[in-house]
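Design request, tokens follow.
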């Protein structure tokens, strides 16, 4: 069994070159609080400093992925909601966006509110068949946050984004797959094995994957010519990597490449 490295309300386990970061407050369905985000940020520091890690899986412990904000532990009145986003949630989401490694989301159960935003922030998202997604903000008189008003229209189109945000109805994993919101659905008992397999495949990839991540994150806000320029600059960096040299050598010698992430 993999060793658990504890942080505040989260823990990390090592699976070779893959780190698994689990939100770990199952008694509240992993509802997120400033303390949990602090623990997650410390865990990411640990993961990114360890050069053996080349991919990350983010999941939840227990029956839920993340039930949204833990309203019992946050103060939302008198500008509290705005401060919480600015000081806690937004830095965490930017950290996920800017990771030096590919990120797989393993959605093991309900992903609600900002928990849904987290679930959609990965490079690949796989959900358990019993999982569901919920934009629950309007149920408590709030608006979508956590970047969901940016993510959803780009993933499923404006009409379906409106449906999710305005009606606040559960979206089952299988329907989320059909809509293009996520990449895969796994049987509940197979979720982590399949998520790890995806992450291990990514961990064997070249250093250029981190450049590809950034290109795709940046692309929605760029004009075509701007994106061409970004691609050119990224390709120049990729072509200077050891992995590019290995890829070319493997191609010429008709063998699988052995990338090192350098």
């Amino acid at each position: 069994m993999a060793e658990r490295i504890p942080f505040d309300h989260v823990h990390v386990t090592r699976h070779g070159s893959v780190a698994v970061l689990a939100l770990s407050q199952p008694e509240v369905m992993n509802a997120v609080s400033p303390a949990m985000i602090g623990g997650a940020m410390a865990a990411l520091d640990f993961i990114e400093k360890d050069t053996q890690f080349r991919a990350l899986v983010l999941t939840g412990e227990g029956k839920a992925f993340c039930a949204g904000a833990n309203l019992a532990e946050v103060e939302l009145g008198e500008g509290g909601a705005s401060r919480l986003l600015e000081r806690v949630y937004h830095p965490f989401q930017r950290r996920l966006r800017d990771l030096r490694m590919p990120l797989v989301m393993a959605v093991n159960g309900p992903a609600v509110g900002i928990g849904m935003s987290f679930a959609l922030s990965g490079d690949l998202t796989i959900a358990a068949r019993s999982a569901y997604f919920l934009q629950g903000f309007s149920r408590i008189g709030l608006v979508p946050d956590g970047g969901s008003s940016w993510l959803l229209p780009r993933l499923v189109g404006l009409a379906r984004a409106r449906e999710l945000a305005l009606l606040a109805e559960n979206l089952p994993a299988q329907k989320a797959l059909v809509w293009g919101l996520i990449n895969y659905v796994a049987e509940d008992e197979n979720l982590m094995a399949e998520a790890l397999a995806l992450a291990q495949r990514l961990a064997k990839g070249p250093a250029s994957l981190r450049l590809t991540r950034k290109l795709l994150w940046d692309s929605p806000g760029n004009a075509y010519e701007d994106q061409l320029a970004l691609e050119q600059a990224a390709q120049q960096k990729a072509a200077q990597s050891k992995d590019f040299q290995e890829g070319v050598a493997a191609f010429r010698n008709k063998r699988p490449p052995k990338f090192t992430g350098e």
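Comment from the thread starter after seeing the answer: thanks! Residues 10 and 40 are 6 Å apart (CA to CA).
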